[in-house]
Amino acid sequence: MKKKRKTYILLTVVLGIWGTIGYQIFSKLSPDDSPALASNTDIRFTPKQTIEKDTFRINTEHRDPFLGKPYQQKRTSSTGRKASTIKKDPVVFPPIAYKGVISKQQSSENIYIIDISGTQQLFKLGKTIQEVKLLKGDKKSITISFKGKRKTISVSK
């Protein structure tokens, strides 16, 4: 009888353990019908209090340690020339890339392929397109002028 009793007790313990495991799995797989909404209607906004900064001033009146008198500040004369306040806008070149040169063996006239703002243009020396003028060029680099400013550009690969 003792063996049957132990068997029944162990059987109930094992069924209890498997039952709790099954319940845990079943409760995780089935969604809840009533979603839990957090209803916090008592929300208050309190802005941060600004703290005024403490201001101070440094006394720049130093005394000469040997003479005991305050330093004499150098005075600048206002009669000198003033710098001009008009600033010229810097010239911004458009995106320019030198692609190469086309030339005939019998002719000394070359045609240069230049990419200006994404569009390829064919240039001869002295030609102007979109305010870009080709001044001089060879197989390795070109010199262009844009709004009076010069720039040398080498072949892009």
Instruction: Give the name of the CATH architecture of the domain at 96-154.
Output: Roll
Based on secondary structure, the structural category is alpha+beta
Instruction: Identify the strand order in the major beta sheet.
Output: 4-5-6-7
Q: What's the SSE pattern?
A: HEEEEEEE
Please state the CA-atom Rg, rounded to the nearest Å.
Answer: 44 Å
**CATH class of the domain at 96-154, anyone?**
Mainly Beta
Number of helices: 1
Query: Which regions have little confidence, pLDDT < 50, spanning 5+ residues?
Result: none
Q: Could you say what the CATH topology of the domain at 96-154 is called? A: SH3 type barrels
The largest β sheet comes out as:
4 strands, antiparallel
Q: Which term fits the overall shape?
A: flat
Name the helicity range.
10-25%
Name the average pLDDT.
82
Could you explain how this protein is built, in words?
Strand 2 and strand 3 form a beta hairpin. 18% of the residues lie in helices and 25% in strands. It has a domain at 96-154: Roll (SH3 type barrels). The protein has one helix at residues 2-29, and strands spanning 96-103, 110-116, 119-123, 128-129, 132-137, 141-146, 149-154. It has 157 residues and is of the alpha+beta class.
Helix and strand topology:
Blueprint: H1 2-29, E1 96-103, E2 110-116, E3 119-123, E4 128-129, E5 132-137, E6 141-146, E7 149-154
Antiparallel strand pairs: 1-2, 2-3, 4-5, 5-6, 6-7
Short descriptors:
3-stranded antiparallel beta sheet; 4-stranded antiparallel beta sheet; alpha+beta; 1 helix; SH3 type barrels; 18% helix; 157 residues
